[in-house]
Structure formats: C-alpha cells, structure tokens
Amino acid sequence: MIEVFDEGLHAGVNLALEVGEILYRDKTEHQDLMIFENNRFGRVMSLDGAVQTTEKDEFIYHEMFAHVPILAHGNVQSVLIIGGGDGGAARQVLKHAGISATLVDIDRTVIDLSAKYMPTVSGGAFEDPRLEIVVADGCSFVKATGKKWDVIIIDSTDPYGPGEVLYSQEFYTDCKSCLNEGGIIVTQNGVPFVQPEELRNSFDRLGSLFTDVSFYMAAIPSYVGGSLAFGWATDNKSLRSQDLGLLAERYLSSGISTDYYNPEVHKAAFALPYFVQKILTEEV
C-alpha cells in the first residue's frame, strides 16, 4: 500500500504527496520533523505536518526571498536570517560577493538533518566562513542583540507552534531596531487565497513601524492554494520602485546565477492582484 503525506494546513484544503522512502521521522525538541522521497518534488521536509521545502522547487522560494531585497537595496553588506534552518536562504544570500550573514534558528536538528539529507538546498552555505549560525529563539535574539543588518529575512514557518511569535508586533518592533538605516525586512506571509488573515495582520503590524509596506508574490508548486506572498517593509520608499534598467545592471554585475529570479520577475512580483489589494485595504 502506498503511503501518502496528507497536509491539512488549511481547513478544507489538502495537499497529498506520495511518500517513497522515509529518510527521517521523529520529534525534535521543538517540532515533528519528517524527510521523505517524492517522485515529483524529490526530497521533502515537513515540520508539524506542513511542507517546508522540497529539493525541486525550493529555488523559487529562496531566490525570491534573497535576491529581491538585496538587488533592490543595492549596497547590502550584512543579512540576518531568522529561521531558514534548511540553509536555502543562506545559500542564495551568499551567492553575492561581499555579504556576510547570520542565521538564527531555534532547532539545531533542522540544520543538521538538512545538511545530511538535503545538501543541495544549502549548497555548502553551512561551511561558508561568511555565515554565522546561532541556535536560539529568534525573538529572544533580536531583542538582546546589539548588532544591525542591512536586510532581515524572516524565513518562518506558518503562524502556529514555534513560528507563531515570529508574526507578533513585538517581534517586528525588535527586528526594526536591528535594521540599518534604509534597510529592508522581508517575511514569509503565506498564501493569500487561503491565509488572508495572516497577510492582513502582518500588513497592519509592519505598517505601524515602516513608511513603505507591501508584498510581492511568487507561485511555489508545493505550497497549496496559489501564489505565496512575501512581506516587504522599509523606510526607503524608493527601493520598491527601482528602475528595471538599474536592477538589470545590478543583477549582471553581481555575477550570480538564478533559475527563477530575473529583474523582470522582480518588478512584476510587486503587482498585486485586486483580491490581494482588497485584503489589505478593506475594513475588517
């Protein structure tokens, strides 16, 4: 009998994936973790029953998380990644020369098992001397640290369990205190079609702290319900509307290689469908 991974993250909407070989299944100190083979997505990692990343489509998520803020900013030297224990965001960030990164994840087991079973996701980032790995609660870290970064990537799980506090007003406030002037915070904000409240909550909370708050979107096949929204927050309003020619110049000068991101996609990703705009603007 074929085993099926059945993700019921959203009420009435399920993602079913055929399970091949199970590489790991156990409860870590913080969450239930499973890594298994799938004939379409390759190796799949789930936490608490929700897909976090897959070998075959992770490049979309991580390229858009990293390169959009870095190339919009234009002079990034330091990046803080909260969550992201699979190493995918770190891998994309460290494609850029002259950038150092700090990765803060609460679960060391996620980092270790990602490196062991899904090494293509991190692509050597964990061994890069420019990456500092801190095993700690992200909320406590940003509250206590005295350091600042140019870009903060909040690569969190959905707002349940250990990831819930990474969507709070207090956490966003502490993150802003860790941001250099003119810096950018980007967030994982779920799929608006099935998670509208999550989108609106982050919009309101970030909007009380920053002068420019919006979202950009990308379709990731293993995330059910449509395109995923990435939150965008900065006090430099010009960064979201950078000229296409300038983005192209920065992209070419960076020398990075991508499979999804390009300057045209960067610009287009900020064009929000009307139903998403209505989630952000209608009275609730």
Overview in brief:
The protein is α/β, with parallel strands linked by helices and 284 residues long.
Structure in words:
The chain folds into 2 domains: 3-52, Roll (Spermidine Synthase, Chain: A, domain 2), CATH 2.30.140.10; 58-281, Rossmann fold (3-Layer(aba) Sandwich), CATH 3.40.50.150. The mean pLDDT is 92. It contains 10 helices and 13 strands. The longest helix has 16 residues, at 58-73. Strands 9-8-7-10-11-13-12 form a 7-stranded mixed β-sheet, sandwiched between helices. Strands 3-4-5-6 form a 4-stranded antiparallel β-sheet, covered by helices on one side. The protein is of the alpha/beta class and 284 residues long.
Task: Draw up the topology in text.
Elements: E1 3-10, E2 13-19, E3 22-27, E4 32-38, E5 42-47, E6 50-54, H1 58-73, E7 78-83, H2 88-93, E8 100-105, H3 108-117, H4 119-122, E9 131-135, H5 138-144, E10 149-155, H6 169-177, E11 179-188, H7 196-207, E12 212-218, E13 228-234, H8 244-254, H9 263-269, H10 274-281
Parallel strand pairs: 7-8, 7-10, 8-9, 10-11
Antiparallel strand pairs: 1-2, 3-4, 4-5, 5-6, 11-13, 12-13
Helix pairs in contact: 8-9
